[in-house]
Amino acid sequence: MSTRPAAIADQTGIVPIRLVVGVTGHRTLAQQDKLGEKVQAALGMIRDIVKATVEELRKELKEDLPEIPVVFRVLSPLAEGADRLVAREVLRTPGGQLEAVLPLAQADYESDFQSATSPPDSLDEFRKLFAAANLRRELPHPRQRPDAYLAVGQYVVDHCDILIALWDGEQSAGAGGTGEIFAYAQRNSRPIIWVDTLQWEKDPLFVKGDGLKLKAIRQIARYNAESVGAGEFHRDVAAESERLLAAARETGYSPSDLRSICDYLLPYYVRADRLAQHYRTRYQKTGETLHFCAVAAVAVLAGQALFLPHRVWPVVLEMLVILLGLYLWLRERRGQWQIKYIDYRFLAERFRATIFMAAAEMERTGLAAPRYLSLTFSESDWVVSAFSAVRDLVPHPIEQRNEPGFDRLRRFLCVAWIDHQITYHRSTQEHQEKMGRRGERYVLVLVFATLVSAFLHILTERHLLGPLGRRLDAGAIWELLPHWVAWMHVPLQLNLVFTWLAIVLPALAAAVSAIRNQREHEKISHRSGEMVINLEELKNAMNEAADRDTFLDCVREADETMLYENEDWRVVIRYRANEPLA
Q1: Which is nearest to 82 in space by CA: 208, 210, 194, 209?
Q2: Domains detected in the chain
Q3: Environment class of residue 137 by beta-carbon count within 10 Å: exposed (0-12), middle (13-18) or buried (19+)?
Q4: What 3-state DSSP class applies to 501?
Q5: Non-local CB neighbours of 289 within 8 Å, separated by 6+ positions
Q6: Better-predicted residue by pLDDT, 400 or 427
Q7: Bridge partners (DSSP) listed for residue 195
Q8: Strand partners, 196
Q9: How far is the C-alpha of 196 from the C-alpha of 404, rounded, in Å?
Q10: Cα distances (Å, whole numbers) of residue 86 to 27, 155, 211, 276, 312
Q11: For residue 420, what pLDDT band results from cuts at 50, 70 and 90?
């Protein structure tokens, strides 16, 4: 069974920093052992940059931050010399990974390592490293071989966070040489660590650039610093693990395979899920309070104008209500509760889906939003970095690989994933529809009460209530109120009471309507209803799939459907920010 390295194992969901290290350098190197030490020193420099970034954040926040493990992925064409040296050194680090990117078709590329100038074991070394790669890809093949080498060098620069260059400082002799790739990286502001191959005793030189995504590192550090409550956290991890293992036993899927996946991924999922729920509550409660603060300010101001025109304390009370609303708004804005809610929820849903994608041994692709959802996130978004760091270290199940069919996997994914999501969305649809109708009834009741108040105001102004109106004006209203308000000694005229109600009730109706609109009850209900239909169709397609490839295509479509639904939700909620005294 594949397992993640113990050095980065974490049972509290602390997300590591994953950095992609590109490599360029010469094919022929002397003193490779010494250069290997310099490569390790270069990796240490990168770790120090991350530690300095986290330390700077710690000083800003004035609070302790957990230590964040740094995981490296090397992006290498695996040519002789520097490409393989850096790849080997990265694979020696805890959690180190290799992504092999070839400039040519593998068979054609391997001919480079069978020439008379190549070491005898060059081809075997290439194949061993290529087999050890977590990801393998071949670039489109240009007509000319030098163009392929140039293209792969530029690809490495474009897709890495930082470039390690083992270079002698001389200009390139041909297309795609180290000097040319070094210059390309500088033109594109990619940070570089230069190991001088002629003066290997010198310390590596750091050349500044913009590729390290320090902002994302800071946000991951903030995320890791969030408190989730140890007792409840471990309880939720155990409960979700038992749910999935029970589904595995029910469907015949290997519990041992699933357990390794759950042990790794569930702490990340539960952490993100608990934090998302926490900040959703804060964000929504703050929004409700702000709306009702606005109603309270209107009620106090109207009461002061109608009943207490010469009293100062109602004005002071109104100011206090406004200050309370501003304080809550500023606190939410400073704490970024809305942004944390949508980011953490998005991350949790991706971690949840990854459990089942890992069970199906699906290719570990990155997050990519379609053009119409380009507002959801960018490549520099911290959630992309956090998700990638966790996803890349997911254990691969091995006991299912030799299964003649895929019925057990199909049953497990349908029961534990698709059916669970269908139940969730059906429940959400019903709940949101119910809340939407309830809010609509509240608004209608308040509007009706407003009309009644306005009508009664007219009656009292025209003295059409007769003796009852005169008796109420004379003080019977005070008999209906609690004794503790008698100190105000306010002459409550009935027509003014109805006037006050006619002013305050519409404001209250507007607040309820605003909360209802902000919660997006109808839209979420409709979206969940559509998701139920889509997921049921996908489940039927999965059950009808005649072969494994067709089945996995259905699994991939299910994952994309959930991803795009979550991306669309993220855009909607992002622009539903709370406003001060809205």
Answers
A1: 194
A2: 6-222 (3.40.50.450), 226-574 (no CATH)
A3: exposed
A4: helix
A5: 325, 328
A6: 427
A7: 166
A8: 167
A9: 53
A10: 12, 17, 19, 39, 75
A11: very high
